[in-house]
Amino acid sequence: MLIDTFGRTATDLRVSLTDRCNLRCTYCMPEEGLRWLAKPEVLTDDEIVRMVAIAVRELGVTEVRFTGGEPLLRPGLVGIVERCAALDPRPRLSLTTNGIGLARVAKALRSAGLDRVNLSLDTLRPEVFHTLTRRHRHHDVLAGLAAAHEAGLTPVKVNAVLLRGVNDDEAPDLLDWALRHDYELRFIEQMPLDAQHGWRRDDMVTADEILRRLSARFALSPEAASVRGSAPAERWLVDGGPARVGVIASVTRPFCRACARTRLTADGQVRTCLFAREETDLRTALRSGASDQDIAERWRVAMWGKKAGSGLDDPAFLQPPRPMSAIGG
Ligand code: SAM
Ligand code: SF4
Question: What is the pTM of this model?
């Protein structure tokens, strides 16, 4: 098991399949993009599957989420999913994606064994989508969402980040739309993980503000705490349920005490936390003949050193050297 000194057990693995992306969300990366990892640095499909197999067989991981960058840009994605779904014990498999191109592969991903998708969409207005992502791809994302739902990659969860003066007025409209389409909407507080270091605490849209805006149109009642477990989203029943809305308030209501996450970057580094400043290199071990047990032991040691919290409230907090897109969000 992946245990840390605060008694937490990591059973939920986030695997970044690439640091590249076809959008340029302003809260994530600059217009010109970033210096991408060179191909030899990125784990191959075989190496990814081996790492997931070690996590599942040796370390008690039960949930695997593929992310990035944009994971749909990874040519071998369907094959990776298929091989991970064949592992024993079989982990639950999901994907966090911006949805571009998902319409083409949703069925193949479902057949390969993908259980669910989390799709990111911050606005219902195409022109605001362009302001936020610097690309005219709103219709592709909507098509991806519909295809995911139709393919049975459900519940389809939609992640939305609100930016002040851009889309912060859209919270109730997004929820209304999500309810009508049977998508589970979750708002994510903007975090200081952008490459440009543009995040300002006093400017971010907080969970309290999101809930205030939603409450103007909907009756929200908190879901029982026992249902949440280690999930990052706090959830509310909408108008008595069963529909729900979630808020991932990593900044103002951190959930570090219940964190069950371990992370693997596209270049084979284990991270204990999105906000960690340290990484443990498993790629070198992987490529120099280490056994599964040896790699598992290094992974265990890395997780044992997981800090109590993100450190966001510490005045000395420093952003991690890598941005969200390179860590795997
Ligand atoms: N490209 C995929 C996508 O956008 O879903 C997967 C990677 S992306 C880094 C994962 C999630 O992180 C997305 O829902 C995105 O909105 C969110 N995200 C990116 N930068 C963020 C930031 N600075 N604060 C909060 N969420 C952020
Ligand atoms: Fe790309 Fe996702 Fe970052 Fe947007 S949030 S730029 S889609 S990695």
Answer: 0.96
